[in-house]
Design goal:
Elements lengths: L5 H21 L12 E15 L12 E6 L2 E15 L1 E4 L5 E4 L6 E15 L2 E4 L2 E2 L5 E5 L4 E11 L2 H5 L9
Antiparallel strand pairs: 1-6, 1-10, 2-3, 2-9, 3-6, 4-5, 6-7, 7-8, 9-10
């Protein structure tokens, strides 16, 4: 009988560790990624676009159209735009009453809230879209034929079909 070398001991130890991990997974002591998904549900999220310049005649993102999204610099897919609300930058007007008016120094600078829908995998940590957890503050890029805007997710809602049809009705960014 031959003596075991160092390489033989490493191989035996690796096989033993793999067997232990397999047994723990089979006995449900260790949770795999596919078991963390609790459900699949429609989700709507709002993207806040701050301070972007548009000098054209019309706003490029339109309700009912599709926009291609990129999450954390990873291209995802085209999603339907449920609602678009935009307004020019505002400023305070001097006088006896505090008035908020369109900023005359920045007539082509806009803020917008874009509502988008998708189907998400629901986990204990929240909604997952395109392999990314969708949470407020997540940077996202909206891209279309004539635009590419970077924004931030400002709201996430797991919805029903009725909620999806009525989304964005109470938003006011102006």
């Amino acid at each position: 009988m031959k003596r075991f070398g160092f390489a033989d001991l490493i191989i035996i130890l690796g096989v033993a560790i793999a067997l232990c991990v397999g047994i723990y997974t089979a006995k449900h002591f260790r949770q795999t990624a596919d078991k963390q998904i609790e459900a699949t549900a429609p989700v709507t999220f709002q993207v806040f676009l701050r301070g972007f310049t548009i000098t054209g005649e019309e706003f490029p993102i339109k309700k009912g159209e599709k926009t291609f999204i990129t999450i954390r610099n990873i291209p995802y897919t085209e999603l339907k735009v449920l609602d678009v609300q935009y307004a020019t930058r505002k400023t305070f007007a001097p006088g006896n009453k505090a008035l908020i008016i369109d900023d005359p120094a920045q007539p082509s600078v806009f803020d917008a809230v874009i509502t988008i829908s998708d189907t998400a995998k629901i986990t204990k940590d929240g909604a997952v879209v395109g392999g990314n957890k969708i949470k407020m503050g997540l940077p996202i890029v909206l891209e279309g034929e004539t635009y590419k805007f970077g924004g931030t997710i400002s709201d996430v809602r797991v919805t029903t079909n009725e909620d999806t049809q009525n989304s964005g009705e109470n938003l006011n960014i102006g």
